[in-house]
């Protein structure tokens, strides 16, 4: 399993203009079951993505497709970990589901 820590380099209005493209990027990888969950950091300086069933190298390629990355607004760090325990009620921790 992989956690992606996204940091915005210099958020501005131009970034807001490509937000819809960023959402389309995310949706694509939810639909093919690459991304498990994602959302903004409460500090508003980036976001988090959790991905599964993918290699680190492939995830790096995918993240470079993100319009935020392509336009120089974001950098990312990938953290690999082994999930050994999962709550049977995991769904109660999430606010909404992307279909």
TrEMBL record:
Signal peptide: none annotated. Pfam families: YCII. Residues 3-81 form the YCII-related domain. GO terms for molecular function: hydrolase activity. SUPFAM superfamilies: Dimeric alpha+beta barrel. It comes from the Bacteria. The keyword Membrane does not apply. Keywords: Hydrolase. Belongs to the YciI family. This is GTP cyclohydrolase. It comes from Falsibacillus albus.
């Amino acid at each position: 399993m992989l956690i992606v820590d996204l940091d915005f380099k210099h958020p501005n209005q131009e970034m807001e203009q490509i937000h819809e493209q960023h959402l389309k990027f995310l949706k694509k990888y939810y639909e093919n079951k690459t991304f498990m969950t994602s959302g903004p950091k409460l500090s508003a300086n980036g976001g988090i993505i959790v991905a599964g069933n993918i290699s680190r190298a492939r995830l790096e390629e995918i993240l470079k497709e993100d319009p935020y990355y392509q336009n120089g607004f974001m950098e990312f760090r990938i953290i690999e970990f082994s999930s050994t325990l999962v709550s049977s009620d995991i769904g109660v921790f999430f606010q909404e589901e992307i279909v």
